[in-house]
């Protein structure tokens, strides 16, 4: 496809892109799961990031994929 045309996106691809699994709510749920795991099982060789993780959980009700990706760089 040399020029983007949304009407040419195949139905099966569109169904995957728009599924509940790729929704902002689900990205937030996966990030919260990761943060809660880090709180329960902190690394023994890094400083405590408990306050940071709790703040992320508090402010992550919905995350777009790029936001979730960027947040991984702030985990410490």
How is this fold's topology laid out?
Blueprint: H1 11-17, H2 24-40, H3 50-58, H4 65-72
Helix pairs in contact: 2-3
Query: What does the largest sheet look like?
Result: none
Considering DSSP H and I runs of 4 or more, what fraction of the residues is helical? 40-55%
Q: Given the structure, what is the number of helices?
A: 4
What is the 3D shape? elongated
Which regions have little confidence, pLDDT < 50, spanning 5+ residues? none
The span between the termini is 40 Å
How much strand content do the residues show?
under 5%
Structural class, by secondary structure, is mainly alpha
* H and E order: HHHH
C-alpha Rg, in Å? 17 Å
Number of DSSP strands? 0
What average pLDDT do the residues reach?
Answer: 92
Describe this structure in words.
This protein has a domain at 23-72. α2 runs antiparallel to α3. The relative contact order is 0.15. The protein has 76 residues and is mostly helical. It is built from 4 helices and no strands. Helix content is 54%, strand content 0%. The longest helix has 17 residues, at 24-40.
């Amino acid at each position: 496809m040399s020029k983007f045309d949304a009407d040419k996106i195949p139905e099966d691809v569109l169904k995957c892109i728009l599924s509940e699994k790729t929704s902002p709510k689900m990205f937030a749920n996966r990030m919260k799961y990761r943060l809660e795991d880090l709180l329960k099982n902190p690394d023994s060789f890094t400083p405590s990031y408990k306050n940071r993780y709790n703040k992320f959980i508090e402010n992550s009700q919905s995350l777009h994929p790029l936001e979730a990706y960027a947040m991984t760089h702030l985990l410490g």
